[in-house]
Specification:
CATH superfamily of the largest domain: P-loop containing nucleotide triphosphate hydrolases
Strand order of the largest sheet: 3-2-4-1-5-6-7
Number of helices: 9
Number of strands: 12
Helix content: 25-40%
Largest sheet: 7 strands, parallel
Structural class: alpha/beta
Distance between the termini: 47 Å
Shape: globular
Order of helices and strands: EHEHEHEHEHHEHEEHEEEEH
CATH topology of the largest domain: Rossmann fold
C-alpha cells in the first residue's frame, strides 16, 4: 500500500492539498485524518467531496492515539485495502511519530509531503515560536510545497525556499498556489530518512462546541473577528461548520487570517473547534449562547 503523510502547521493547506490531489487521481484512496479537538471537521469536508475518510479526532496520533493509529491502519488494510493511504496528522502533531508507527507496521513505500505557508514561515521561524517541532515537519519531508505564493512577495518566497533547503537539503521544493501539485509526485531522491525522537506535538489547549441553531452570518463573522483580535485568548486556529441565516458556511481562522467559504449543503452538526493558549472558555460559551 502506497502511503503519504501530509504535514504542515495549522492552516498551511493540508486539507486543500489532499482534496486537490485526489480530485486528479484515479486510484483507490482512503484518507485518515487526525483533527484537533473532540469535534472533527476535516473528515466531513472530505466526505462532502466524496472522498473516503476515517477520523481519529480528539487526541494526537503521535502519543495518546498511537495505539488507535496502529489498529485503525490494520483495519483499513484488512477491510478497505486501498492502493493509496493518505494520513493527515493534526497541524500540531509531529510526523516523526506517524513514521515510527508505519515503520513498526512495515508499511512501504512512504512519502512525506510537507506544506509551508510562504506568507508566515519566515516570521514564525525567526520568532522561534515552535522550536524543534517546527523544523521536524520540514526535515521529515520528501517533498515540500512552498504554498500561498500568490499571497507573498518574491523576496519572502525566496527567503522561505532558502530556509527550507537549509533545514532539509534532500527535499524537493515546489512553489504552489492553493496547494495544487499537478500530476504525479516528483521522483524522490534515494536515501535513508532519519526519524527523530522528540516531543511529539505542541502544547496547546483545545475546546470544542456544538452549534445547534442557525446563527446570523454578520454576528458570527464579528465573533471570528473578535477571536482574531485576541478577545477570547491567544487563538492560533479556529475552524467551524455552521448554519447561518444566509446559508451554511465554513469558517477558518489561522494565524490572523479569516476565511469564509459557503457550503453546498448544511453540515450534519454545526460545530466549532478552537486551539490556542489562555482560552476564555466561559466567554466563548456565553457568546455562542
Amino acid at each position: 500500500m502506497k502511503t503519504t503523510i501530509v504535514c504542515g502547521l495549522l492552516g498551511a493547506g493540508k486539507t486543500t492539498f489532499i482534496k486537490n490531489f485526489l480530485r486528479e487521481s484515479t486510484e483507490n484512496a482512503v484518507v485518515l485524518v487526525n483533527d484537533f479537538g473532540q469535534a472533527g471537521i476535516d473528515g466531513e469536508i472530505f466526505s462532502a467531496d466524496g472522498i473516503e475518510s476515517i477520523e481519529l479526532p480528539s487526541g494526537c496520533v503521535c502519543c495518546t492515539l498511537k495505539f488507535d493509529l496502529i489498529t485503525t491502519i490494520e483495519k483499513i488494510l484488512a477491510t478497505l485495502a486501498p492502493a493509496h493511504l493518505l494520513i493527515e496528522p493534526s497541524g500540531i502533531a509531529s510526523p516523526s511519530g506517524v513514521l515510527e508507527v508505519l515503520e513498526l507496521l512495515k508499511i512501504t513505500p512512504v512519502t512525506v509531503i510537507g506544506i509551508v505557508d510562504a506568507t508566515e514561515f519566515i516570521d514564525l521561524h525567526e520568532a522561534e515560536m515552535f522550536g524543534r517541532f517546527f523544523e521536524d515537519q520540514v526535515s521529515s519531508s520528501d517533498i515540500i510545497l512552498i504554498n500561498k505564493t500568490d499571497l507573498a512577495d518574491e523576496e519572502k518566497i525566496t527567503r522561505t525556499v532558502m530556509l527550507v533547503e537549509q533545514i532539509n537539503p534532500r527535499a524537493i521544493t515546489v512553489r504552489t498556489v492553493n496547494a495544487s501539485l499537478h500530476g504525479p509526485f516528483p521522483d524522490i531522491p534515494t536515501g535513508q530518512r532519519q526519524i527523530k525522537k522528540l516531543t511529539p506535538h505542541l502544547r496547546f489547549e483545545t475546546v470544542s462546541f456544538s452549534l445547534e441553531s442557525t446563527v446570523a452570518l454578520s454576528s458570527y463573522k464579528k465573533f471570528f473577528e473578535d477571536m482574531k483580535k485576541g478577545v477570547y485568548g491567544d487563538i492560533v486556529r479556529a475552524k467551524s461548520l455552521v448554519a447561518t441565516d444566509q446559508g451554511p458556511f465554513r469558517f477558518d481562522l489561522s494565524f490572523g487570517t479569516i476565511d469564509m467559504v459557503p457550503l453546498d449543503s448544511s453540515p450534519d452538526d454545526g460545530r466549532l473547534v478552537i486551539i490556542g493558549k489562555h482560552l476564555k472558555k466561559n466567554s466563548i460559551q456565553k457568546e455562542l449562547s
